[in-house]
Design a protein that fits this description.
Strand content: 5-15%
Structural class: mainly alpha
Largest sheet: 3 strands, antiparallel
CATH topology of the domain at 3-97: Serine Threonine Protein Phosphatase 5, Tetratricopeptide repeat
Radius of gyration: 15 Å
Shape: globular
CATH superfamily of the domain at 3-97: Ankyrin repeat-containing domain
CATH architecture of the domain at 3-97: Alpha Horseshoe
């Protein structure tokens, strides 16, 4: 099971397939909640799977565009980690923050560099503020 989708204040629906619930978002009345072992949202799962249609709609309607899972990772980091240039562009255009880092200092830029996805690296460098590290720290930031 992936997550739950709160369409109304008290109504929850369990999803067992990858996010294909985009039409429900078009009403603007739903809220995406993180669930599961790692606290991942539908947007994170769509980004990780490279599902561009869902990434686009979820990014436009998500209240948690920069939400982090239990590892401190965002949807932008997940898209960068698989080298999905289009998903990264969609998330950045929606306002995703490229400067967010995991507790170990990994940003979306660092994930893309580790993968060797030079097109994603170039795009993220345009959106990353000066001074954002592409190299991880040795441990959690204090």
């Amino acid at each position: 099971m992936f997550t739950k989708f709160n369409r109304n204040a008290g109504e929850k629906t369990a999803l067992t397939d990858p996010p294909k619930s985009v039409p429900l978002l078009q009403t603007g009345t739903c809220k995406v909640e993180p669930l599961g072992a790692h606290g991942r949202t539908l947007l994170m799962k769509a980004a990780e799977a490279g599902n561009l249609a869902d990434v686009k709609v979820l990014a436009e309607h998500s209240r948690g565009l920069n939400a982090v899972d239990s590892h401190g990772e965002t949807a932008l980091m997940m898209a960068a980690a698989i080298g999905n240039l289009d998903a990264v562009q969609i998330l950045l255009d929606a306002g995703a923050d490229a400067s967010i880092a995991t507790p170990y200092g990994w940003t979306a830029l660092r994930f893309a560099k580790e993968l060797g996805a030079q097109d994603v690296v170039g795009l993220l460098e345009e959106f990353s503020p000066a001074g954002v590290r592409a190299e991880p720290n040795d441990g959690p930031q204090t």
